[in-house]
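ok so heres the complex, two chains, lmk if somethin looks off
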Amino acid sequence: MYKILEAGKLADNIYQMVVEAPRVAKRCLPGQFVIVTADEVGERIPLTICDYDREAGTITIVFMPIGASTEKFASLKAGDSFRDFVGPLGVPSELCMEENLEETRKKKILFVAGGVGTAPVYPQMKWLHEHGIDADVIVGAKTKSLVILEDKFKSVAGNLYVTTDDGSYGRSGMVTKVIDDLITNEGKTYDHCVAIGPMIMMKFCCLTTKKYNIPTVVSMNPIMVDGTGMCGACRVLVGDEVKFACVDGPEFDGHKIDFDAAMKRQAMYKTEEGRALLKLREGDTHHGGCGNCGGDK
Amino acid sequence: MADVLKKVPVREQDPKVRATNFDEVCLGYNQEEAMEEAARCLHCKNAKCVQGCPVNINIPDFIADVKEGKFEDAYKVISESSSLPAICGRVCPQESQCEGKCIRGIKGEPVSIGKLERFVADWARENGIKPPAPETKNGRKVAVIGSGPSGLTCAGDLAKLGYDVTIFEALHEAGGVLVYGIPEFRLPKLDVVAKEVENVKSLGVKIETNVIIGKSVTIDELMDEEGFEAVFIGSGAGLPMFMGIPGETAKGVFSANEYLTRNNLMKAFREDYDTPIVRGKKVAVVGGGNVAMDAARTALRLGAEVHIVYRRSEAELPARKEEVHHAKEEGIIFDLLTNPKEILVDDNDSVCGIRCIRMELGEPDASGRRRPVEIPGSEFELDVDTVIMSLGTSPNPLISSTTIGLDVNRRKCIIADEETGQTSKNGVFAGGDAVTGAATVILAMGAGKAAAKGIHEFLSAK
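and the predicted structre for the whole thing:
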C-alpha cells in the first residue's frame, strides 16, 4: 500500500496528490511515469510524475478524472492509500540527463504545456533551473479557472506566457497562436521545443514548430496495461517504426508521430470506459437505456 | 475390469457448457480414480519417467503411495523435488516428458502421471498439508527477480536451505505467467496459484510486488546497498513479437500478452473488475502454441467465433495435444496452412479483416520441420474484427541493459550455465525464459532448481 500524504485540487477538476513511494522517489527523473491502481479491482493507470522529493520519499501526481478508475483516485483523501504505485517507468527526458547537460546548455528551449499536461512539464523545467538553465514556457488552458501551477512555473521559468482559449486570463487563444506570435512578432528564437498536453494540442504544436524547423519532443500517453513492454498496447507509429511508449518513450520526436492514428487508438476503449464510468456513478440504476453510452451490449 | 492399456478417464466440464464460462475444464481424479490409475504403474526399477521430468520427481515412489492411499506420503515425495505440483500437474507437457517415456506407453496409453500429480497436490491443499518449513536459517540474503515458475522454485529451494529470500515482482500480483498468461479455465488463480504462492511464503520467502528491477532499483544496488549476496534472475520472456505486416497498429489488433493480461491478471471477464476488454465478434488468433490456444479459448468464452490461423499443418502445432483437443471440442476453427499478409482496416482504423495466403509444406528447415511455402495466387480475405498476435515472446532488456557486466546473446537472452545458472556476473544467476526464450513452466522450474543449487554452492564456498 502506498499512503497518500496530501490530496488537493489544483483547479476545478484537476487533482494533485503527494504519495509515499520511496523506491520510485529515489530513482525517478523528469519525463518518467508511474502506474497506479486504487484497489484490487481497479485498472492500472499510467500517470506522469509531476514532482518528487528524494529525501521524503514522495512522488507528486496530478490527474483529471476521465474514467471509472481516475474517478476512484479522485475520491481518495490524505491518509488513504493506493493499492499499487509502481515506477519509475519509461525513459527520462533527454533534456534532464546529466550526460546531455553540455548540449542542453547551448539550446534555447521552449516548453508548451496544455491542460493537465502542464503538470509533467514542471519537473523538467525545475531540473533545468537547478542546473542553471531557464527555459521559456507557454501554459495553455481553456479558461482562467483551469490554469494550474502558475506560481511554481514563475519560480523556474525564464519567461512564462499564460494563455487561455477564451481570453479570460493572460494572452488569448491557443498555444499555437502564442508560438507564432513569439517567433514572428516578438523576435524570439528557439532551437528546441517540448510539448506536453492533450493529443490534439501536441499535434497542432508539432505542425506549428515544423514551420519554423524547431525539433519538438512530445510525451505520449497511450493506453497501457503493464508499463514494462509486456503487452504492446501502447504501440505508437514513429516514422516507419512501431515503438512501445512504455519502454521506448513516453517522449518521442513529435514531427515523426502519426497523431491521427494515435488518437484513434486512444479511443479504443472509449465506450467500455464510458460504460464503466456510468456504472460507477449510477450503480444499479445503470442499465444502458439512456442512450449515453450505447448500453451494455 | 478396466482396460489396463488405457488411462482411467478424467472427468471434464462438457465442452458446450465450458465454452461459456471460465471455470476449470478438467475436473481431475477423485481418490478411487487416482488409486485405480496408480495401480497401472509398473514401478520400473530404472524408471524412464524420472529422466523425462525436468525436476526429476521420484515418480514411481509417489505413485506407489497413491496406489496404497497414502496421499500425504505421496505429497512429501513430490515436495522433495517440486515446489509447485498443483501447477505442474495442470500445465506440464507430460506427453513429451514423463508420460512420453513411460513403459506402459509402448503398448497402450502411458500412466496418467500429470493427473496423479495434480490429484496429490489438490488433496494436500484441501487437507491443509503444507511443505515442511526449514529448520534452521542462516540469515544470508538472496534476491530473486520475478515470481513466475523459475523464481518461485528457486526461492522455495533456497528458503528450504535456510536462506533469507526476497522475491521482487514487477506486477501487482505474484505468479508471473501463471497469473497473467495462463487462463483461469486451465489454472485457477485463487485456489491453485495463490495457494502455491502461499506455500512458498510459508517457507519464509518474502515477496515485494511493484518493483521493476532495472527501473525501481538495479541489481548492482541490490547487491551493493541492500545486502543481497546473490541474485537469481527469473524475469521471463515478456516482450511480444509482431509480424511486421501492414495494419498491425490498427484498433482491434492485440498481442496475446495484452489480451490474456487484461483477462487473466486484470480479470476483465468479470463484471466487478474495471479493466475493459474488446469482446470481438469474430476473432483470428495468429499462431499455434499454447499461448495461441489460451487466447483463442479466452476469446471464445467472451462470446466470439474464433479462428486459429497457423502457417504450418496440424502435426506441427507447438501446443500441447490436450490444449488443441480441448480447443477443437469447444468449437475453435483451425485455419491451418494459412498465413496473414495484411490486416485490413476501415475508415476508423478498426480491423475489418485479414488478407491471408494458403501455404503448403516444402523441404525441412533448420528446426527439422517442413518449411511452409506460399501457394501463388491463393490469397483470400478472412472476415474478422479482432486479431490476436501470438507469435512468441522474447526476454525484456530492462534488466540486461541496466546490469553492469551481464552478458546476453543475439536474441537478448541472458547467458547462463545450464548446470548452475551462473551468469557472466559474479553472484548473479539466471534461469527460465529469460535465459532460454519462451519455453514451458516446468523447464523454468528446472532451471530455478538448478540455480538454487548453484547459488547454494557459490555462497557456501564464499
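quick notes: The longest helix of chain A spans residues 118-130. thats all i got rn
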